Amino acid sequence: MVPKLFYFPGNANLAPHMVLEELGAPYELVLVDRAKNAHKSAEYMKLNPMGRIPTYVDGDLVISETAAICLHLADKYPAKGLAPALGSPERGRFYSWLMYLTNTVQAELIFHFYPEKIADADSARAEIKAKEEASVGGMFDTIEETLAGHGGPYLLGQTYSILDPYLLMLGRWTRNMKRPARTLPKVSAFMTRMLERPAVKRAFEQEGLKAPLI
Question: What is the pLDDT of residues 30-50, one digit of tens each?
Fold first, then answer.
């Protein structure tokens, strides 16, 4: 049975989608129509009780959460080299960045896009959006400094990993902010290079994503 990636265009499934294309691994895309609240349907909730996208299903294995899916795929296909060797110093740095992207940057972006999760009043929501946007901007400043510091084309330097599609996805989410990630020189160059990768192009095309891409 071919593994399935449950997705909605441009959502958090984009990172594992790019990883799957990079791996050349077999999979099937299954649309979960958020516009129709399909991610909260009884059928989907049986699969993913959190009611969130994405979900990756491989036989009896069901994995939710973007970082978990990406890490599983990297470890399932170690010969592809999308994560440093287990136990290596590079693997430690890799974990640090993966946790930062998912637990810090992505979490702040979620509150920016969905301030109603923590506030009821419109004025409070507007303040949350503004503060989260500023906070995310600071995080991308840190990423900019990292890219400038090591001079490599990727987040880990010279080594391409699952961190890079993840970072592209999060950077893309800032495209309508007052100071989007693309305004930072090193981040902009990184994202532009990423968009030229055949695997990334295929994932964007399959999800039907249109300009502006970043």
Answer: 999 999 999 999 999 999 999
Q: How far is CA 150 from CA 67, 89, 91, 174, 189, in A?
A: 24, 16, 17, 24, 14
Q: Which of 39-53, 104-118, 134-148, 187-201 has the weakest average pLDDT?
A: 104-118
Yes or no: say if 21 and 70 are a contact pair by the CB < 8 Å rule.
Answer: no
Specify the amino acid at residue 143. Answer: I
Q: Going by C-beta distance under 8 Å and a sequence separation of 6 or more, which residues neighbour residue 138?
A: none
User: Which H or E element spans position 153?
Assistant: none
Output the six-digit token pair for 184. Answer: 């930072």
- Alpha-carbon gap, residue 177 to 137, rounded angstroms: 9
**What Å distances lie between residue 75 and 61, 79, 85, 166, 193, CA to CA?**
15, 9, 9, 16, 25
CA dist 7 to 38, 56, 145, 147, 177, Å?
Answer: 11, 9, 32, 30, 24
Domains of the chain, CATH where assigned: 4-80 (3.40.30.10), 89-197 (1.20.1050.10)
Which is it for strands 61-64 and 28-31: parallel, antiparallel or unpaired?
unpaired
pLDDT band at 142 (very low <50, low <70, confident <90, very high): very high
Q: Distance (Å, rounded) from C-alpha 88 to C-alpha 68?
A: 20
pLDDT of residue 120: 87
The alpha carbon dihedral of 85, 91, 97, 103 has a sign of positive
